[in-house]
## 1
Amino acid sequence: MPSELHYARQSGILLHPTSLPGRFGIGTFNETAYRWVDFLAHTRQRIWQVLPLGPTGYGDSPYQSFSSFAGNPYLINVEELAADGLLDQALLDQAPDFPDDRVDYGAIYRWKLPLLRQAADAFATRATPEQRAEYDTFCAAEADWLHDFALFMALKDAHGGAPWNQWAMPLRSRRPKALAQAEKTHAAAIHAHKFNQWLFYRQWQRLKVYANDAQIRILGDIPIFVAMDSSDAWTNPGEFYLDDGYQPTVVAGVPPDYFSVTGQLWGNPLYRWDVMKSNGYRWWLRRIHAALRLYDMVRIDHFRGFAGYWEVPAGEPTAVNGRWVAGPGAHFFETILGELGELPIIAEDLGEITPDVIELRNRFDLPGMKILQFAFSTDATDKFLPHNYRPNFIVYSGTHDNDTTRGWYEQSATDHERDHFRRYCRTDGHDPAWSLIDAAFSSIAVIAIVPMQDVLDLGTEARMNLPGRSTGNWGWRLLPGQVNEQVADRLLATTLLYGRDPALYAGKEAEAGGQSGQDAKGAGGRMG
């Protein structure tokens, strides 16, 4: 981890870009995203945490992506395409009336993807020489994954969305003659998917530079496992436990616990760590390098899987009949460290954590996570209570997988938890979200991050994800004008009160963060 994270107190906000307000049904990399960065800078937040930015499939989960390397075309700003002459403005003027408060992914799929295809088809005749040169440079720079991904998506389109391990065997097994024929047959579709990736990367990188210039770093997310129906699995089948027909023989999950008597059956294919070790973890190194082009640092979801993971035979209806299997352990992180020179990694160390997981995390000095909503179920010894922290942790009021704090307090928490929370936070419970924000920001944890829903003190209706629920997730959006001056003033005051702006420590013990030009101007009091 970069050394500054061990002593520079700072804070940030968790908000996925899809949740930003805007005209076209989903948050994008448009002007509103830049005003969001202004808001973060004005309130002295130094971290913007996002969920995985990859293309999503069934269920719309960013944790089940078609690729570990590609970006989500839903996030592309189509207004920029009109401004660049690649789309007719009339097409945007005729856009459907999308809801403001939720992402209707089905409607986005039906409207936006065909619109992007029109822009891709028009690129040959409408693109400027500069745009064509930039596109060609991008395709060459990303050649180690881009063509395979674009071919994968074109073939999925041609197969009506069917998973790759249901395609005809010549395509399933990537026989050269079948691939060559597919490349000819689907050349236009392959170009369209490459075009979407060029748009995504150029727009996101521009936004990321803007954030970095405002001294805001992007904290991204790497799911430990990949989706079975992904370009990753299709192009690297030998690195997963698959049979001769390319069906998984074992899949990922978690065992039964207090929350579920049958565990959780995730269904992701499991890595052949022996194969990966023998080739120097080549695919993982590519994956982490790609992630660090998108983000400044990454959270690895389900970190405990590197110490040991729950293996379930394929075809089991639940995760009950699984077993623990040793992960790659320290050798994996030593390899990554040797490649990168540092580990800009946060360990998502939640769930059933055993001593080997803690040992692995501590051996590489990786920050772990503390969730305040988990802190009140026992007594003063609870590891999630702030007085039990060490500095090298990231504290959250809750995450995308939790209820909002108001929803937790009013609906999810037990009577014991509510009573313990009120006594610990010295509150009557009228403002639960900000009571936990105060607890997070005042703690000794080096970083405090809170979901934007808690900053706005929203209820369960604003929850991002309910694990185990197959539909209705990932749709929450900010309303236009919801992030106003009063919200900004309160967040700024709390950040300064608890010393979460590194600039406060300039010339003292901690690293000076400095103030951005936007800070000095007081930009971003209102967004959207």
Note: Confidence is low (pLDDT under 50) at residues 1-6, 510-528.
## 2
Amino acid sequence: MKTARSILCILLVAATVLVFCACSRNGEEDEAPGTTGNPAEQTAAAKPEAEPAEKVESRADYVISNVDEYLNRPRELQPGSKVTLICSDVPSQLPWNCTPEGWLTYNCYEGLLYIHNGVVTDIRGCVAESWEHSEDYLTWTFRIRDGVKFADGTVCDAPAIAKSYDYYNEVSPATFSGLNMKSWEATSEKELIVHMSGPCAYLESALPRLYIVSPTAMETYGVNDNKAAVGTAPYYIESYTSGVGFTFKANPYYNFEEKMPCIETVRLNIINDENTRLMALLNGDIDGFQFSSVETYYNLKDNGFDGTFIQSYGNADPFWLNARKVPEFRIFEVRKAINRFLDMNAVNTLMFDDLGLVQDSLWCVGSSGSVPSDQFYYDEAEGLELMAAAGVDPNSMSFAAKIIDSGADLFVTIAGQLGKVGITMEIEPLEPEANFTFLMNGEWSITCGNSGYGDTYPYLPWTFILKPEHLIKECWQDIYDPGLYQKMLDEFDAMVNSLTWDDMLKHCTQLTKYCQDDFGAFPGIQRPWFAAYNKDLKSLVFSTENHYLLLYYMYKA
């Protein structure tokens, strides 16, 4: 069993859940542990269980290790408590310079709003206690919560937030223009008004990650100095040593009960080698870490680790067919046949010991943009019939798949399955830099990877892959079905110009359906994701598509 990384991964997308948080779509915490308000999610996750792990219903971006522990957490500091975990290196710690490093930004910064229990339709006040918008969605008014302070002790009021946005906009103007945020002003200490150049249907789900940074710290140190990395969040960065790690301390000024930290000191060590991490956990040198290797999972079990195991799913890896590069892919029956020739259950068994999740949509099971379909399945005989109906001899099909080395295992497996019916797919490993050039220039024949999907911004992939001028074109309907391609463009335009989340999602799901029904792309496998933590750590909560551990919910028994 060997894991393989996706070729194209602008943002990793994760999916849920060991013991699922008890929350309905309206945010009520009244369902039984291990349930979700979406019946489709329950059906999708019904699959044979691996012996060592408990798996229940799935959702796209939230994992809670134990619902009772989460609901009954102390919500106050445990003096003297310390935890040692694993992290990646983040040389620059200001939010505009480390956006992929959510494990840091989610714990050290906050926005006006936050997403409760990972439900993107249940957005609540954080630094802002309430908000409203004009009828045309072009003016938003936020009322700031009393008593909010930055970790440096300075007050976080509306004028401070406006100054913070000014600094942020100076460094990263695309962050604001991408949300159609034109200007902002503090009309009083408690009121911030944001003016929009146009509606943004996902503004509320994006604001939790439009982080507020101390303007005093930025005035003192500058917008690129790590000493200015001061937010209002439950934790602040006490120290950092390049290549060694971080020390986080609980923010002494924090007063928001929902995210009140319990652990006083969190040491985050940089250990890149997974075997070294495993031994550190077994030896008690660290308290836990996350990983994706099935071998590591079984090694921990075999070596008697008796802490908390969490199993969930990783990012969605849909397959995309390049009809410009491979002429046969322009034929509907051939694209559909390719899907019939790929036995994803067999791939899951071979590569992940059945611990992954075979998808039924391009996007993660249970995520906001998911469009489940029963049209993706393995049937070699049907595939051969489709090829015959199209007048294409499988033995005449031959193309090369140019991939990065780390994706070779998956593509060798796929090539073997296609080879059984006579289709030749040669594997040509490339260096990552060269591979990206091939992707950008459309020189690839078949890819497997997520192009930027996120549950809080479900139309993001289409901004990378749909139009000819986009970063990496993966939709080639313009070559073989211009009428369908125009419908997709129309849905895209309607999607990005929607006023509300629901309207935006309607167009987004239709766009996904067009692509799926056309077999221009089809689902792959959500890879397994694991975490192992010492048993005295309670209420382990992982949020967002990348399984960021929310330190402030964690406490010690």
Note: Residues 319-526 form a domain with the Dipeptide-binding Protein; domain 3 fold (CATH 3.10.105.10).
## 3
Amino acid sequence: MKLKNLPIGQSSFENIIKNNQIYVDKTKRIYELITSTQFNFLSRPRRFGKSLLVSTLKNIFLGNKDLFKGLWIYNSDWEWEKHPVIVIDFNSIVTDTVENLIYSIGKCFDNKAKEFGISLEESLLKLKFKELIVKVYERTKKEVIILVDEYDKPIISHLGEGEERLDIAKKNREVLKSLFGTMKDEQVISRLRFVLLTGVSKFSRAGVFSDLNNLNDISMDSIYSDILGITEDELEKYFHDYIKVCANEFGITYEKMKEKIKDHYNGYRFSRKNVKVYNPFSILNFFSKREIKNYWFESGTPTFLIKLIKDKNFYLPQAENLLVEESIFSTYELEHLNPSALLFQTGYLTIKDYDFETNEYVLSYPNKEVKYSFLKILYKSYVEEYDGENLYLKLGKYLRAGDVESFIETVKSIFAGISYSVGSKLNEANFHTIFYLMVNAGGTPAEMELLTCEGRIDMVVETKDRIYIMEFKCNQSAEKAIEQMKEKNYAEKYKNKGKEIILLGINFDTKKRNIADWKKFILSKF
């Protein structure tokens, strides 16, 4: 079977089309955008196709109709009028100091001017940007298109790197604030046809966009929920042959292969509308290598996020079902970083549910790739295993086998290996967090704080043959934990599953920084 080429690492629309690579047609959504609004902002996690969107828009506005044969927009009523396009790609701009940022953006403007056969006289960045737009308009007699890719790189590339780098981020923010405010200038705004800024994060109006407060933020608009990413229908339409080949190599049915792919890579949701998409980077790499691996996660380590989570004492188990208000999506500030907002914007959490009555969102991990990779790296940031063994990998094996004694002894060994700097700060919440991390890091699904009619279960682990219901105590007794589970009938919701139910009470000693005692109680199969 001859498979169509995959656009691995490709963000150029022209190259994808000319090299006969798969392009998931997003031109209907793009048409809806460019025919309805003028100033737009879109945030999405890294490796989600923002640069390809910018490239596609550039070719539409340049009037390169022939490149779009076979795509939705080709047969639409789009007039293919050629416009001057100015692309500002912050991936290629130097951002290490505010001086270099200003110089690099200035050089970018000078180079753009040369492309249009004009020269710029202004030296101040804000004035130079205005001069560029006005002169390009005068030269071409056409309204100008401004496309800004990864606008926030001069800020977020410095986060989590100490006070000196944070100061650079703040200075860079002020440069961007002034620069983007230029597009609100009366002489400029009348000469612009369309503007799009893309990035990972959305800084609030008091920050970068306070001078450009007419931006239409489409990041969480239902109509554009699938403008980036790959929907289930698109996966079937464009990658049918690849799914077929992979199913054959895995030795499973086509439908089972789809389930595996969905379980590992689907699940991103960016609006109230329940539309979920796959991360394109992961999907393309999976079909290329035909291995279930954590491609997106391995392409960038979230060291800053991990530091922030620990510094803010963010209770990680709540990330399974994190209830948030809508306001967190637009309150991203350098001085007051919110772990919940940051986890969502960077793609480690996504929308799981939305309540129309309360206007509240539930966030959770999008899929297995993100969840287990993220929890594993967090686990390793807390735990030092001096013997070099990956002890956490044994935990799932013991639970699947019903070997609770070996499970507990391994957990004790892990806690014994935690450094004093971490161990000395262990309290009940931290104990819960590390316990949650060590079980999940090994790939064993563990859920925490599950609500029942009688109370809240600390942890549940379900294997093929068993369900473990766990209650944790600190400086009390394991017996008390068992009594609580029996009294509140925590096992009730798991009856009729045909599995053995094991109640497991664990008491943690904060002075010894380890498990003091534990007890199990086995219920018959229901």
Note: The two ends are 49 Å apart (CA to CA).
## 4
Amino acid sequence: MTRPDHYDLVVLGAGFGGSLTAWIARSAGRRVLLLERGRHPRFAIGESSTPLANLKLAALADRYHLTPLKPLCKYGPWKRSHPHIACGLKRGFSFFHHRSGRPFKPDTDHQNELLVAANPDAERGDTHWYRSDFDAFLVEQARTAGVTYVDRCDVIEIHRGPPWRLRVATPTGPMDVTAGFLIDATGDSRRIADIVDAIDRTDTMQTRTYGLYSHFCNVAPWSDVLAELGGSTDDHPYPCDAAALHHVIDGGWMWVLRFDNGITSAGFSLNPRTHPPDAAGSPDEQWRSLMAVYPSIARQFREATPVFPLIRTNRLQRRLDRTAGDDWALLPHSAGFVDPWLSTGIAQTIDGIERLAPILTGDCDPLHRDWALAAYDRNVNRSFDLIDRLVAACMRSFECFDVMTSVTMAYFAAATFTEERLRAGVDVSAHGFLLAQDDRFGEIADEMYRAVGNISRLDAAAFTKRVADLLTPYNTIGLCDPARRNMYPFTGSIEPADSPASEPATQVAGRAKPRVDTANGRASTAERSRRL
């Protein structure tokens, strides 16, 4: 009998998380096998990065010498260095509130709009990842670095270690391997959950949604629809379409993410109580029925055609109670998922990879390995707890946009609080992803979730004031300011290496650089230190 090939690490699943993990381990000289059921390039969603995701991605690129990855952490360098990899410009988060059966009604005080800038210009902008290109790029980089990659394969046997023993069916015949450590990066297939006795805890989650989505061509800019409706974008802090665009509706929301190749990712996340999927007909029929109820969204999609057939999912939420053991780990997106709302998925996965990397590369002291894996498990689980509460609180408050806006401020406070510290070189790992291990912040999330439980009786003004007060210790960029009228320009710090920008935003993005409010702009160093 042929002796199995032995690898230090086997990674199941070659999405961006699995490929990046494999590449990092290989950069430290580990022998790595990356297994993929499908074949790249392939369609995938989960496309919107954030400043926190990009800061952590850049740190990984620097720490593990992943030179080709570094330019992909900002829009300008990406477009110059890798123009063949499609992406989209993300300047921030845009929200527009729609009423059933009515056209969107622009308001000069932006009572039904919220725009929060995430970066100062297009050069330093975040990105939407066109995943078929991005994932294929990471696979190729991992292979170039020396990772053994096998696609179109099926893991037909897995036996618990040590060492792990796997039998893999490949196009060229069976393959037997052993591994010192196993990473499940397969997403919702949960390939090793039963083997490691991880229990499904999805029933404990408060968020309950399902998805209806595809990629589209010929989606009109929302700014054009606003203009047709008599609205003005003159005081928007950035072009509202260059963002993670959220259309908030009754019992759900819609994402619209534009790529530079003419394709737009768009889909609904829907509460099954408000939008029962069993009564909705086919995915195409349900899409048409939603368009009929929300005429302004329908105007944006009037000429749109799907690139792929519409997909309707089962419940989006999933959760396992264990994410790591002494010789295995689930990447966060394999351990669970909440909802695409607020683009937490990519950043959470990169945060998990950052925490696992010292273990996989040998940078972690063997005496502290078990402690590090237990800490990883604790962080991932507490992250899901926090994200679930924040998302569920937002969904409970969709009918009252003022309340929803206040709840989202908690996310922006947690994200920017962390980002500011990372830019200052402060180790924030003990706080957990999005402050998930900060007990005080967790109490704030709990209080908000409970308060919006009976939204019809909630005093919106009092709630808004209460949230602003609670977030004061974490509010480093002037959130929760009524004078902003829901329009928040970028007021955060910028890494020294990024300033000045090496190329004007107009040359990168092909549009005028948006105005930046300097009257209430970036806080002074002394003031920011006091806030921190």
Note: The longest strand covers residues 173-184.
